[in-house]
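Structure ticket #2291
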Amino acid sequence: MARTKAVVKPLNLAIGKSFGLPMSLEEYMKALSIAPVRNYDSVSRLPTGSLKWDFALGGDGGLPRGRVTTLSGEEHQGKTTLALMIAANIALVGEEIGLPNGGKTCYVDFENAYDPDWGDKLGIDKSKFFLFQPERKGLPDLTAEQMIDFLQFAAETNAFDFYVIDTIAEAVFAAQMEASMEKSVIGIPALKWGQFLRKFKGTLKKTDATLLALNQLREKIGVMYGSPLTEPGGRSWRFAASVRLRMHKKNDESTVMVGGEKCPIHVFRPHTMKNKTATKHDAEIRVVFIKGVPYVDTSLEAAELGNDLGVFVKEDGSPISGSCYWFFNGRKIAQGKQSVANALRQDDDLLDEVIVAIRAAMLLLNKKAPTVDPALDLEDGVIDADLEEVTDEELYDAYEDDAAAPIED
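Resolution: structure written out below.
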């Protein structure tokens, strides 16, 4: 007996259509409120407070909004410090860059280790910084599921511009909280974090908020080849994150003289492992501790980036080289990188103008597409601009000649 072909009946979602009648694509899309994306807006950014780090992250500089970013590393590498510095900077410039909540931060401290004194030194604005901890005095402990539900609700109501999870590895879920120490609960964090990310990513996209999730490093047992380092919380984080960063701290014991005192310098090196919004670059962030208070050396970063991006030039407009005077918009600044940095420290208006020019150069550089010289021919490995004039027969003959050629060792 001949087999009849199965007919898949389309869903009857349009009003006035009887079941089984064909529907046009336009009617089907209208019934389900489906529409193709026509306007592709570029990814907006949250400035981190470091020009070099902003440049490494791409665009006009900073963490991508509406996306997930992870920052992992070993202990005492500066993960929490950088997260708090970003939160302080967002609160400072939130209204200026048009954030809907003025730069409010939701900081979920799973480690229960936030130090308010250290936050004050980093410049945290308490009116825009909201700390949430699962374990609090006089209140019942909260499970990680409850904290995750709160994050989802806060994002859906667009209550914050910046979310920080500190850290993924320290989240205690209900099954782990109720189990005894003798009972091992395997796979629960990976399952729960995966469920959270599948929902939270879409909410971030709609509200244009940003999630920065900090994580620790562990070592896998029995690894003979390759790196034994792994990140707790499951593999879903590495797929959900648009930007993955691995934190390193350079052992630099250099100092700088500020106000007649020697101030130590710490160099943070966030290594970019993945970036879906720009080309991968690394950065070195020099943080100067003046009387125990950390400051990013913005003036020196502006001088270095301004030189690299062509913001500073010679008097004749050519790139900086050798020991020459640096000019900005026809204005003579100083001679040498350190002298230019000192000049920027003494003139806030000039520093602001240079930073605006640097961010414009960042955006232009990251949006500029590579160009191909049409004069190059096929022998140079580039398709010739006159390829459309070649006939099919000529292409086939060329293919046969190439296939018949002997293979060179």
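Closing remark: Residues 1-35 form one domain.
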